[in-house]
Amino acid sequence: MTQNTITTSSMSSFIGGRRRQLLTALAVFVVIALVPRLVTDVYMMNVLILTLLFAALSQSWNLLGGYCGQVSLGHALYFGIGAYATSILYVKFGITPWGGLLTGGIIAALIALALGYPCFRLKGHYFSIATIVIAEIGLLLFHNWDYAGAALGIQWPFTPDSWWTLQFARDKAPYFYFALALFAVTWLVTFAIVESKWGYWWRAVKDNAEAAESLGVTIFHSKMAAAAISAFFTAVGGGFYAAFVSYIDPDSVMHFRFSLLMALPAVLGGVGSLWGPAIGALILIPLAELTRSYLGGSGSGLDLVIYGGLVMIVSLTRPEGILSIIKPAKRGATA
Hints:
Layout: H1 2-33, H2 42-67, H3 76-93, H4 97-119, H5 125-143, E1 154-155, H6 173-194, H7 197-207, H8 209-214, H9 219-245, E2 247-248, H10 250-254, H11 256-269, H12 276-295, H13 302-317, H14 323-326
Antiparallel strand pairs: 1-2
């Protein structure tokens, strides 16, 4: 009887904690949605849009690299696939970018599954190196793919502002709300997964793959699922970025720096946590954009020195992530 009472109490506490997390997240999303009413400067609005976008991208990377422990440094490949799929379908075939976002996400997920078959047989740094090499191969292929514009890229046509074409030249608020929606969706998907069977399997694989396998966890399938979901949302983010900037070329969407900008926020904010990627993006993306704008114009590289120095300080003083300042690092969704 006592054991049943304890079990019921623990379950009630768990459900209550999950409910509080969800309500807190919804409150945060509502507060963020009010920001466009307060920010009128176009440049600052662009910075905020990029911050939300990379918070979503980092959360997507976190599913594979943070929870499943598979540190990918080649997510720029999926980002570029989403950008090119959306651009080609819209510019060459007149298909709405919404169709391109979905198509790019599906293509990226399928490619992630195809690449996962050989790559997930590698362990540790060998897997990370393989993802870098594959992403660089993709960059070279798009550089030489004439149908996709090769090195010249693809220019989106100028059209009246419309949600149908995801083009807003005069008002950036719609882009802000799309980026917020993407971040909210990736957060909610992560929230739903981390306490599911897949979430427990991913964390088991991350902690000790051999022990997890001995307990019946299908390691390979767990990694493949994480890769596909992560690639899907990364590609959707790439498609949105293409609509946002209205012009893409291989270096502007598939360069190695994009892979780093997806991984760094999660690493510095706190990998394997719900809010770590968002906190990391909130610090890193505005820092990168503002230092580049105000200190990088002379070509001295001072902006990169300051940016790199702050990244090193955080890495050395808070290796568990910035989130550990607010709350001690915990496993799973509790962080």
